[in-house]
């Protein structure tokens, strides 16, 4: 039985008689420190209650962020080379290749899953463990549900079959959020797209736009380099009034500009029709939204405008080189005619001298 403790709580003012009395309090158990004075005023109570909702609001905000991140799937697009041998890659990774749903042959889709979970005698594959990679023939690779520290492992699979590896790889990040209760099939957001259900065709559509976008960034940077070279040439002509570029160097720039334009149109297939989007309107909606979000048409328009600037400079410099060549030929003709005249005069003088003798 715990000991009985007698505590003097001090003096208090009795509400009924107004007399000051000494109150003794008897408690069971341990001695505890507390006050027998009246409870805090309503002012302090309201102040205490005022702070409580802030704590609940912060907690709700953290829970909201956790719920938002729970259904978020990261998407990473890379452009690491100029060509990928898809046939060899498909043959050596046949166990991971997803059968195509269209006749397009410029990409392959692969699924990587962790070992299945065993429950009794039934093997259950955990869908959240699956990682997806879509590789395009022109050099782009798009990863789904792959963390940053694991991305390099999957890119090594691509490098084994790649040619024309870039010294500096280009990268872009995106995200997908799944909401089964979404009224529409899709909904856009900043740097993410919300889908009612993420299936394989959605992965193909999203990866096609992201792969084209990251490849377009590379080709735009290449054309920017060509534009910069012609800008330096024009500035040199402005200062010196002469043009000193070698004809071979000019032809190399011409070939580089034409090959970049051909790669964008033919290899990347920027304007090719998607069979998946053609069959189902919801995939067409995703395709149109992403192409508008990444401004694919506008960026290609800027690329085409820069290539026209390059073409104009090429025509001008070719005319300069052609005029130089014409001038050289004219001087050669003049020299040859002069030599012929000298030889003719010599023969005339020699013949007249022989007759006189």
TrEMBL record:
List, alphabetically, the InterPro entries matched: DUF155 (IPR003734), RMD1/Sad1-interacting (IPR051624)
Entries under Pfam families matching the protein: DUF155
Q: Report the superkingdom from the record.
A: Eukaryota
One GO CC annotation, please?
mitochondrion
Q: Which residues form the DUF155 domain?
A: 133-303
Its family remark reads: Belongs to the RMD1/sif2 family.
Name this protein carries in UniProt: DUF155 domain-containing protein
Q: What is the source species? A: Fraxinus pennsylvanica
